[in-house]
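tokens incoming
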């Protein structure tokens, strides 16, 4: 923190430095200090949209929901075309229990940007809380989620041999002991750009994932929902990272805003997981709702397994206490060639 504080001694109210310090404080579990800092700075810079947005997030995390709502509304007024401001507003409405209002705000945002993954996640959450059957169209776990097996790349006698070599490559890349900023991982490390690593096992990942991805796309078929509307049988990968967690590690519930279809591939797993510890969980919102809807689908992290699901689908992991490491590779898919944009989801309810 000292370099930031040194800079702030020269320009004590510089918004960008304040935002950086608040981010560091939040990552260090000092939410109260971050909130106080953002309050003071936003009072001095009420026209700074990123400060308004940061205050909305910090206040919501600290349980100051009315303050979060006011800051989010200010952010929307300052940047009405920015999706992030509307998402912050919708989050505050959801936490307040204003589910119908949140639905209408999400529908308006979705009409402007039909494939915004953050907005789709919030719209689905509002529908779930309202017991609206359209929730089941977006969170169709049987139809939109696939659990498949990686293919064995050429040059390896078995998938087990390949995974063993890939695990060794990835383990050597996991040099950090803690999680990076602004990521969903807690008590674990993350390695970026694993699909670009030079080792043969990393290069072979493109082959290992291709067959199950094409099986998933063929099973999806065409349709008008936000996933199938873009399905023309082709894809490209976006990003590619590895997560390694020890006992106590977990992913907080989140979505992938830059994806279309997201994934998890399991390369290493503790040998003695208890119950659903360490499992991937789908459907539990990453917003502190009361009551918080539970996860609706759990997937065991078996070696060689690949899970494919919509990028807007809330997902996280169940913490585990077993000895050993849980290591996965994940990436997002984007459609190729470009597909059609899906229609807004505010059409009448079935039978309505």
């Amino acid at each position: 923190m000292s370099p930031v504080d040194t800079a702030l001694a020269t320009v004590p109210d510089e918004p960008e430095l304040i935002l950086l310090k608040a981010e560091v404080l939040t990552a260090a579990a000092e939410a109260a200090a971050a909130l106080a800092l953002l309050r003071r700075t936003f009072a001095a810079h009420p026209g700074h949209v990123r400060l308004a947005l940061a205050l909305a997030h910090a206040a919501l995390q600290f349980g100051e929901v009315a303050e979060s709502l006011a800051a989010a509304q200010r952010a929307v007024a300052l940047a009405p075309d920015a999706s992030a401001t509307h998402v912050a507003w919708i989050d505050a409405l959801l936490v307040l229990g204003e589910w119908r209002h949140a639905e209408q705000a999400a529908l308006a945002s979705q009409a402007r940007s039909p494939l915004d993954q953050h907005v789709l996640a919030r719209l689905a959450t509002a529908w779930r809380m309202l017991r609206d059957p359209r929730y089941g169209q977006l969170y169709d776990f049987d139809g939109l989620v696939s659990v498949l097996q990686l293919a064995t790349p050429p040059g390896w006698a078995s998938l087990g041999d390949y995974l063993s070599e890939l695990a060794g490559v990835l383990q050597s890349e996991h040099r950090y002991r803690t999680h990076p900023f602004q990521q969903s991982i807690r008590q674990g490390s993350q390695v970026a750009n694993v699909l670009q690593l030079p080792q043969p096992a990393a290069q072979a990942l493109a082959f290992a994932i291709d067959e199950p991805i094409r099986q998933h796309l063929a099973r999806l078929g065409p349709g008008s929902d936000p996933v199938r509307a873009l399905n023309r049988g082709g894809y490209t990968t976006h990003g590619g990272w590895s997560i390694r967690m020890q006992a106590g590690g977990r992913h907080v519930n989140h979505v992938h805003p830059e994806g279309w279809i997201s994934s998890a591939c399991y390369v290493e797993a503790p040998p003695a997981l208890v119950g659903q510890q360490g499992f991937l969980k789908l459907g539990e919102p990453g917003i502190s709702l009361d009551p918080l809807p539970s996860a609706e689908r759990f997937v065991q992290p078996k070696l060689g397994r690949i899970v494919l699901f919509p990028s807007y689908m809330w997902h996280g992991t169940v913490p585990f206490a077993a000895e050993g490491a849980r290591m996965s590779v994940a990436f997002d898919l984007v459609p190729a060639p470009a597909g059609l944009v899906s229609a807004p989801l505010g059409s009448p309810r079935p039978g309505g």
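note: Residues 179-185, 346-352 have pLDDT under 50 and may be disordered.
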